[in-house]
Amino acid sequence: MAAVLNGMVPYYLFKETAAPVAFALNRVGIHWADIVVSIGALAGLTSVILVGFFGQTRVFFAMSRDGLLPHFFSKLHKNFKTPINGIILVGGVAAVLAALLPITEIAELVNIGTLAAFIIVASSVIILRRQRPDLKRPFKTPLVPWIPLLAIISCLILVIELPTVTQLRFLVWLAIGLCIYYFYGRKHSLLTGEHGTGEEDLNEPPSDD
Predict the structure, then answer these.
(1) What's the pTM?
(2) Average pLDDT across the chain, whole number
(3) How far apart are CA 16 and CA 91, in angstroms?
(4) Among 90, 101, 138, 143, which residue has the fewest nearby CB atoms (within 10 Å)?
(5) Inside any domain, residue 97
(6) Is the pLDDT of residue 199 over 60?
(7) Residue 146: which domain range?
C-alpha cells in the first residue's frame, strides 16, 4: 500500500494530510474512489470505537469482580445482563472527550495506551513463564523470551516516537491508575491473602454476589 501510494504521489506531500489514501486518489483525479474510501474510513473508525467501547466496559466489569475496582462496575442490567454502570460512565466520558479534544490527540492517547498494554502483556509472558511454568496454557508463545522482548522493544520505539505531551498525559493517567490500585485495588483484590490465597480464583470467576 505504501509503495503504491508513493508511486502515485510524491512522499513529501503526504505531510499535508491525515488521510493519505483519499488524498492520493483525489490527487490523480479518481474523485469517486476518494468518496468511497472516505465512507469506508468512517465506517471503519466507527467500528473501532464500538469495539473499544465494548471492550473497556468489560475490562472494568472483570476488574470489579476481582476486587480491583468498586462493585459499582460489576452491576448487571436486570434484563440485558450487561454492565450498565460501566457502559453509562465510559460512554459519557468518551462523549465528553470526543467533543472537547481533537481526534489526533485522542488517537495518540489511544496509541500510547495500547502500546503500553502490549508491553505489559509481553512482560507478563516472560514473568509467568518463569514463576508459573506449570500453569495450563491453551496457547504458548514460541521462542520465549526473545519474541516478548522483541515486542517490548518495538512498542517502546513507537512510544518514544509519539509527541512528548502525549507521553506526559499517559504518565498522568498511569499515576492515577496506580493510586487507585494502591489505595483501593490492593486492599480489595481477591488475589491477596486477606481475601484468600487466590489459587481458586484463577480458575473460577467470582459469583455476582
Answers:
(1) 0.69
(2) 86
(3) 32
(4) 138
(5) no
(6) no
(7) 102-209
Q: Is residue 4 in a domain?
A: no
Q: Considering the domain boundaries, does residue 10 fall inside one? A: no
Three cell numbers at 161?
Answer: 516516537
5 lies in some domain: no
- Select from 46, 104, 14 the least CA-distant residue to 25: 14
DSSP states along 41-70: HHHHHHHHHHHHHHHHHHHHHHHHHTTSS-
Grid cell 480491583 in the structure block, residue: 68
What CA–CA distances, in Å, run from 194 to 2, 117, 203?
A: 55, 28, 18
Burial 42-71 (b: 16+ CB within 10 A, else e): eeeeeeeeeeeeeebbeebbbbbbbbbbbe
- When divided into structural domains, the chain yields a total of 1
Q: State which H helix or E strand residue 203 sits in.
A: none
The conformation of residue 77, written as its DSSP 8-state character, comes to P
Q: Give the pLDDT confidence of 79-96 residue by residue, as tens digits.
A: 999 999 999 999 999 899
